[in-house]
Amino acid sequence: MKYIYLVAYVASVLVANLLLDHFIELPFFGLLSYGTIFFAFVFTLRDHLHRYSLNFALLGIALALLVNTICAFYFEIPWRFLLASFLAILFSELMNTGVFEKLKQHSWHVRVLASNAASVPIDSTLFTFIAFYGIFELPMMAEIIFADIIAKFLIASTIISKVFIIKPKNNESTTLTTH
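^ thats the sequence. predicted structure below, dont judge the formating
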């Protein structure tokens, strides 16, 4: 199962990057990138990798960065998007991993929500400023960041609370079953 999470994690990062410059106009929250919908899964999938070990989670981050760099050449993703994605993933995922690791004594739900609370704003802000500075005006970038953060939290919360029932087997592992 851990390799399914690994492939899903890397694939989610890739699909998010391929769709990062396509937007949905939301009535109250500004612009939302289609990539955000996929990237919302990234943090929770990374938290699944972390259940197996810190090194496995770091391997996932490294693979995602490598695959996305290689695919950027193939799909001709602009360098500013590649740099934005690379730095946002690097800093936000390391923050996510650090918070998740420090909260080992808490339930998986608490670790996921807390690590997302720390890393999602970093990811959204860093990515948007690097990718779109000079392309969009600051108010539009603020709308993108706001919509991005809201969407990622809503999707992650839905995944945690509605899609999966988490049944702890012991202190570090869990079994996932769907409703």
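The chain has one domain: 2-178.
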